[in-house]
Input
Amino acid sequence: METSQSNDPCDDAGCDLVTVPARQGLEAVDILRRGAGEAVGPVLHDDGGGTLAFVVPAGTAACWDVPGSTCTETEGRGLRLNPEPPVEGSDWLLPPGEAELATDPAVLRRALGEAARMIAAADSCR
Output
């Protein structure tokens, strides 16, 4: 993954956002933070919608195919990674400046898969 000199991966070409249900996203964040060398970029929590959005490099949406998630291109349409959340009713779970520039899509894909398996296993024990 290429990184820019800026702390804002959305400055030049934009960035993409992978949105998942909050439960799966929180599990994935834990998996990424526990992993050796697995870095996680900024993560936005939408309180009202119950989702998490991971900042990923621009171009990720073109080949994103993980069931139960969506990947949206921002194409530089004004998304800036500032300490203030970009959308009213949301907040940063991992704010810009305290996280990597963006989450590697391949690493995120594996973490989301592992999170889904953990949730399915936990739910089957009920």
Strands lie at 15-21, 43-46, 51-57, 70-73, 90-94.
